[in-house]
Amino acid sequence: MNILISNEPKAEKIKVTSRYLTVYFQDGRKLEVPLLWFPKLFKGSPRQRNKYRLIGNGVGIHWPELDEDLSVSGLIGLPAD
């Protein structure tokens, strides 16, 4: 029997303010980055920024109204599996 254990970071929830994107990870960690790093999110309305969904069991974040996708591992500078 093979068991695959992934150390890939996964988001549990996010919070977007007018200045920061905060990602809360399933393992308890938290990452806060300037919203200016993401022009589509920065230019979006608060309603659009808060209308997101986690994709791939938390490996990515998608904002349908802003046509923006972010990988969680990319946010912390890890190469994708």
Give a topology summary.
Elements: E1 11-16, E2 20-25, E3 30-34, H1 39-43, H2 46-49, E4 53-55, E5 60-63, E6 68-71, H3 72-75
Describe the protein's architecture and organization.
The protein has 81 residues and is of the alpha+beta class. The protein is 16% helix and 35% strand. The protein has helices at 39-43, 46-49, 72-75, and strands at 11-16, 20-25, 30-34, 53-55, 60-63, 68-71. The strands form 2 sheets. A 3-stranded antiparallel beta sheet has the order 1-2-3, with no helix packed on it. A 3-stranded antiparallel beta sheet has the order 4-5-6.
Q: What's the number of domains?
A: 1
| Full CATH superfamily name | Uncharacterised protein PF10387, DUF2442
CATH hierarchy class name = Alpha Beta
Describe the strand arrangement of the main beta sheet, using strand numbers.
1-2-3
Overall body shape: globular
* SSE string: EEEHHEEEH
Q: Total number of helical segments? A: 3
> Can you summarize the main beta sheet?
3 strands, antiparallel
- Compute the separation of the termini in Å: 22 Å
DSSP strand (E) fraction? 25-35%
CATH topology: NE0471 N-terminal domain-like
What's the count of strands?
Answer: 6
Mean pLDDT: 91
CATH arch. level architecture: 2-Layer Sandwich
Q: pLDDT under 50 segments (min length 5)? A: none
The Cα radius of gyration reads 13 Å
Secondary structure category:
alpha+beta
What is the helical fraction, as a range of percent? Answer: 10-25%
